[in-house]
Write a structure and sequence with these properties.
about 190 residues; alpha/beta; five-stranded mixed β-sheet; 7 helices; about 45% helix
Length: about 190
């Protein structure tokens, strides 16, 4: 068998990559394994909520809780407006979903959130018995799902969640980066005046 034929059989055909293949590869990389089209739709909704929070001066984080395509609760951060330290999008969405279902156990529900949950929010997800968590951007300072801790899959706890990270991570990360860049710029101009 010739070298050219061997490389073709192994899938090692060399040459320029067609443009369509590069687009498909980029799309596949932005959609982690296990995330469905419904999950992507819910993450888009969470991104919309995060954008709305940013317009009100809140850190742009949005969360959506859903089951079988039906949104049970959604929220964005409102710590500044409510002066409540627990005003994280995840906690507020959990409260609204519990009110909508009439109970605190949210088994069979999924949550899409734009930022990896902190320890408080990850603990609340475990206590609410959420089944799946999808998050966008990693949080290197307070991430309690993959980055600093692994609370959602800790075998010592009585409940564990399926976790799918980095869903639309570039869009979620860009929201946060742009928000904090604008905030730093505003502080610099205020100091110089």
């Amino acid at each position: 068998m010739s070298n050219c034929l061997r490389s073709a059989v192994r899938g090692g055909v060399r040459g320029p990559v067609p443009r369509w293949r590069a687009r498909v590869r980029k799309r596949i990389q932005s959609i982690p394994r296990g995330a469905s089209t419904e999950d992507q739709q819910m993450m888009r909704r969470a991104i919309e909520l995060a954008r709305a929070a940013a317009t009100h001066g809140e850190v742009p984080v949005g969360a959506v809780i859903y089951r079988a395509g039906v949104i049970l609760g959604e929220a964005s951060n409102d710590r500044e407006a409510s002066a409540d330290p627990t005003g994280h999008a995840e906690v507020l969405a959990l409260r609204r979903a519990a009110a909508a279902t009439g109970g605190w156990r949210l088994t069979g529900c999924s949550m899409a959130v734009t930022l990896e949950p902190c320890p408080m929010c990850a603990g609340a997800l475990v206590n609410a018995r959420i089944s799946r968590l999808l998050y966008g951007a990693r949080d290197p300072k307070a991430g309690a799902v993959d980055t600093l801790f692994d609370l959602c899959r800790d075998t010592r706890l009585n409940h564990r969640l399926e976790v799918i990270g980095s869903v639309m991570a570039s869009q979620c990360g860009a929201l946060l980066s742009n928000f904090f860049r604008a905030r730093r710029s505003a502080k610099r101009t205020a100091r110089s005046v």
